[in-house]
Amino acid sequence: MERKIYLDSASTTYVSSEVMDEMTSCFNVVYGNAGSLHTFGRDAMALVDKARDRVKEAIHTNKANEIYFTSGGSEANNWAIMGVARANKSKGKHIITSQIEHHSVLNACHYLEKEGFEVTYLPVDETGLVDIAELLHAIRKDTILISIMAINNEVGTIQNVKAIANIAHDYGIIFHTDAVQAVGHIQIDVQDMQIDLMSMSAHKIHGPKGVGALYIRNGVEIDPLICGGEDQERGLRGGTENVPGIVGFGKAIEIAIKNQTLNNKKLKDIREHFMSKLTEKIQYFKVNGHQHQKSNAILNISFYGVEGESILMLLDLAGIYVATSSACTSKSMLPSHVLKAMGVSDEIAQSSVRFSFDTNISKSDIDYAVEEIAKVVEKLRAISPVQAGRI
């Protein structure tokens, strides 16, 4: 096996050379603790401040002090959900989220239920969109937080974030969005969209793993999730700052926003070429997610009568790397909770494969990948044949 084609960028991306270049000096030149008062510490903090400004500019907030660095998107989601709930429990103990959120949101909500909070998990339609009428029906006098992701990590459906945030504010409710799959892919303006809290992660946009950020609008009451030094992230997130990671995140988000329009065009071309070739080679499959309101980078497909796990394993042997669900739950044999919430049967859900694209993928790569996908699907159908149109 010589050719390797990585089609799992929604899971993680490679670190770009520009990001690596900026990070390198933080390991052996500007290696001071950003909390130290001496020159080495001040130089490190200057790099952190520069990265904070870059994130601020990328999401269109005027205040750098609204950006708090974390260890990644999962920590940011946990902090947003649990921190806001605990800080505002005197106002109410009801939270609204959706059934298709990332598990870092869902499990944080489950944890809060043990503390006496009540959570409404909104259903979605067959395209993965939250029903606005259902949202309005779920709002109560004691609702303190609504958390709805911007782009679903499994099917790529883009939620109506601005409309949902407007509704939340009409009722005096804090609004959080998990934008881990959105930042760098779609236009995000936290002021225009009226977002109160927003989770981000570096490794989805060619930055390093282990670093992310939570945007917290000034005035939002939130408790710390990690306690530590009073000066670390303004007393709200304890722990020595991950200076190399933060610097890498700042550079990665700057590049992603600069190239966003061009990258989206490239990704759309790649996705459409993939679909065109797949339609030529394979007859029976179903695309999961919204037909139009979708990320160009994510494509979720169910191949009727064939197990997604088997497709993944055989494609791996051919040097093509895909996923069957979120990378955080890909080792689970259970059907995707996202597809189940969308009304997809267990049988079809277990036949689904997620292809997620990056701009370094060529049409030649896609041609090769689709050829191998067709071979794999044909081979698996021969082992366990199904009638055409059975599902």
Defining traits:
7-stranded mixed β-sheet; Aspartate Aminotransferase, domain 1; 391 residues; alpha/beta; 3-stranded antiparallel β-sheet; Aspartate Aminotransferase, domain 2
What does this entry look like structurally?
The protein is α/β, with parallel strands linked by helices and 391 residues long. It folds into two domains: 5-13 and 260-383, Aspartate Aminotransferase, domain 1 (Alpha-Beta Complex), CATH 3.90.1150; 17-258, Type I PLP-dependent aspartate aminotransferase-like (Major domain) (Aspartate Aminotransferase, domain 2). The protein is built from twelve helices and twelve strands. It has a seven-stranded mixed β-sheet, with helices on both faces. A three-stranded antiparallel β-sheet has the order 9-10-12. A two-stranded parallel sheet has the order 1-11. The longest helix has 22 residues, at 260-281. Mean pLDDT is 94; it is low at 326-330 and 387-391.
Tell me roughly what share of residues is in helical segments.
Answer: 25-40%
Provide the gyration radius in Å. Answer: 22 Å
Q: What is the top-level CATH class of the largest domain?
A: Alpha Beta
Task: For the record, give the distance between the C-alpha atoms at the N and C termini, rounded to a whole number.
Answer: 34 Å
Strand content: 5-15%
Shape: globular
CATH architecture grouping of the largest domain? 3-Layer(aba) Sandwich
Number of helices, counting only DSSP H or I runs of 4 residues or more: 12
Low-pLDDT segments: 326-330, 387-391
- Count the domains: 2
The arrangement of helices and strands along the chain is EHHEHEHEHEHEEEHHEEHEHHEH
The CATH topology name of the largest domain reads Aspartate Aminotransferase, domain 2
